[in-house]
Design a protein that fits this description.
single chain; alpha+beta; Alpha-Beta Plaits; 7 helices
Length: 255
């Protein structure tokens, strides 16, 4: 009888150890599966082939980019990349990207035959990590019109950039702006991409859309006299910046 009791106790301890091990793994598995990474690609069609390009891109997206690899395509309306298209894929996890493998000969052949002859050049591609703690809108809460501010920071100023963005978030929250923040990853000079999503349309860009000045709104959110300190830090941390306006093209995106 004692042998059976000992065996039962040993089995119980074994199961408890395994259960504890699984519980300890859960946070690790959750982190590894976080789908917060976007892949972007910029493409520039030939000026006289835009209509053909739109048709070919839509057909390609419909056939080869579905499910978790759907495309959201934006037409770039202003800035240095005017006339180009930004193709956004994701969100997915880094593990998803690592396990994706090649897209296959059929996919590559279709791209080379139907799209490549219609473009002037393929621009840069990038990976972007969504930064939920700096954003005040969900990653997938998209809008038709967006503007992107590309903030390239100087070496050693990553912490200062996070402080700058954190203080800006207080203003976005107070103003009820929808803003998503990303950091680039393994994609050229390090940057923060601040994406303003105009949920009610471009009227939000009107200089008189909000009655108070930005300085007034900033100091209401961060304290009296805080704006000058923010600007001093901004001048030191940000080495270069530029912005652009983009429009979502549902007609050429994945369905």
């Amino acid at each position: 009888m004692q042998v059976h009791v000992t065996y039962f106790l040993n089995q119980k301890m074994y199961c408890m150890k395994n259960l504890l091990f699984v519980c300890l793994l859960i946070p690790i598995l959750s982190i590894s599966q976080t789908k917060n990474v976007l892949s972007t690609q910029r493409i520039f069609p030939k000026v006289d082939k835009v209509a053909e390009f739109d048709k070919a891109l839509a057909a390609h997206a419909l056939k080869y980019h579905t499910g978790s690899w759907k495309w959201r395509v934006y037409e770039i309306q202003s800035g240095p990349d005017f006339g180009g298209y930004m193709v956004v894929e994701g969100p997915n996890s880094w593990e998803d990207f690592g396990n994706r493998g090649t897209l296959g000969d059929e996919h590559t052949s279709d791209w080379n035959k139907s799209i490549a002859p219609l473009i002037m050049q393929e621009g840069q591609s990038a990976y972007l990590d969504f930064r939920e703690e700096f954003s005040n809108v969900a990653l997938t809460d998209f809008s038709k019109w967006i503007s992107i501010s590309h903030l390239f920071y100087n070496p050693g100023y990553f912490g200062d950039m996070q402080t700058l963005i954190s203080n800006m978030k207080k203003v976005w929250v107070a103003d009820k702006e929808a803003v998503a923040v990303y950091t680039s990853s393994s994609s050229g000079p390090p940057q923060f991409s601040v994406v303003y999503r105009y949920k009610t349309g471009l009227k939000e860009k009107d200089i008189n859309f909000r009655p108070e000045t930005f300085i007034t709104r900033y100091e209401k959110a961060n304290g009296s006299g805080s704006f000058n300190g923010w600007m001093d830090m901004y001048r030191k941390a940000v080495g270069n910046q530029w912005s652009e306006l983009l429009m979502f093209r549902e007609d050429v995106s994945s369905k």
